[in-house]
Structures are given as C-alpha cells and as structure tokens.
Design a protein that fits this description.
290 residues, 13 helices, 71% helix
Length: 290
Amino acid sequence: MFGYVKPFKPHMRICEFETYKAVYCGLCKILGKSYGLMARMTLSYDFAFLGLMALAINESEAELEPQRCIAHPFRKTPCLKSPDGLDYTAAAASILIYNKFKDDATDKHFLGKIGSLFMIRITKNAYKKAEKKYPQLAEYIAEQMKQQEKLEKENCKSIDRASEPSSNILSEIASGLSKDEEQKRILRRFGYLLGRYIYIADAFDDLEKDFHSRGFNPLILGDSTVNELDLPLIQKKTEDSVNFTLGALADAYVQLDIKKYKPILDNIVYLGLKNSFYDIIKKKEEKQEK
C-alpha cells in the first residue's frame, strides 16, 4: 500500500532533494524518539510527503543540520534539527501501519501471515502511544480497515468501491495537517484522491501476484478469466482511472495555501506520482520481454 508518493529526482535541484531527504530523516528520527526504534523501520515515502505538506502549510520552522543516524553511521546527512511539526504525521503513520499489518495477517498465506503477525507484535507499542494521542483518528482508521475487509470478503469487483476505505483513511489523515477550516476542507479532498491513487497503483502493481495466488484484486475480478489475465485491457482501464484521479488531485492541490517547499511538492504532485505509476508499467513490460 505504501511507497508510490515520491519525487521525480531527475527534475529536482540538488538543494530541493537534500531538503526532501532532510524531512524524511527528521520524520524517521521523531518516529524513533516518540514511538520506538522499530517504528522507524516502517517509514514510507508516502508519509514523508505528508510530513512535508504539514510543514509547508503550517509554515513550521524547519532548520536543517548534518546529523548521523543508524542508516548513515559513518557520515552526516541533512536532517531537520527540530522536527516537532512532524509529530502528527509520525503518529498517523504508526496507527496506519499497525492496522495494515493486521489486515495483511487476515488474507496472506502461511509465511506472509507469520511475517505480518511478527510485525504486529513489534509495532503494537508504537500504535498504543499514537492511539493515546489521537484516539479519534485511530478509531476511524480501524473502522475503515474493517470496511476494507468486508469488501474483500465480498469479492468487490468495483475499483471505486474497493478503494473507498483507503481514500477515506488518507482523507482523514490529510485533514488533520491543518487547523484552518478551509484548508482542512481542501486537504480532505486532496487526501481522498491521494488514497485512491495509492490503492489503484498498489492493486495494479500486485496484479500478477494476486492472480496466481488467487488473492483479492478488484482489477482482476472484472476483466479476466480463471486461467488468463487480460493485462492490456486492465492496464488501459487502470491508466484511465489513474489519469482521472491525478487530474482531480491536481485541481485540489492548487487550492491549498502552500507557504514553503512548493517546488518540491509540485515535483511530487505533477511528476512523481505519474512517474511512479509508469515505473510499474515499465517493470511489467520488461518482465514480459524476458
């Protein structure tokens, strides 16, 4: 579900990419400080983007300084000096990743289930701390994950219905990035579309794996037979859905009052998201050629 919201590095200036990495590192450090070492291992590009969005909208002070960390013990890398503005993002990440592992534990095969159960145990402490800070968010995410499980048990063939819980979760998380009511309204719409994009991209990425394992995937259920995957048709429909979603997401994005880091956010919204999806297509084409 995670890892599709990242910058398109070839079109970024070095200083912009260093700032992006510093936000990522700052979020990683606050996860470790507030929620424990193992919470740091669950950090994704998606929440680095939301952390950057929080700093950009609220114009939080974000001084950068070279620091060492467990990933770079021998050389210093740019990192946010005081990443307090990222606490909400870190909490939301801890709540969501725990629920994601719980969901995985219900539908994976034996080895995958064992791995998910292990991750549930090592992320539970972080979840409890985050839940205590944001109980309403934790309750809402848990409710939406139950709705997701229900749709999967029903073998929902509609990508619109199947993506709804993920869209609602990101909508709720994004709305919490600002206290301004107008910004919250726009962020709610933006988050909804971002969640929809992530769900569709992830479903398309897992297409072959889900087909061979008979795992749930709404992209397969509508356009394939039991023995054959109609990849060209599914790819065409998925591209149309992704392009529509990213167009609507861009419309919501331009309404936000971005006070800082706009070139970095522009890069991710206008280039990075589409590039991540086409990377999936490229990977599938290369696999077919072998």
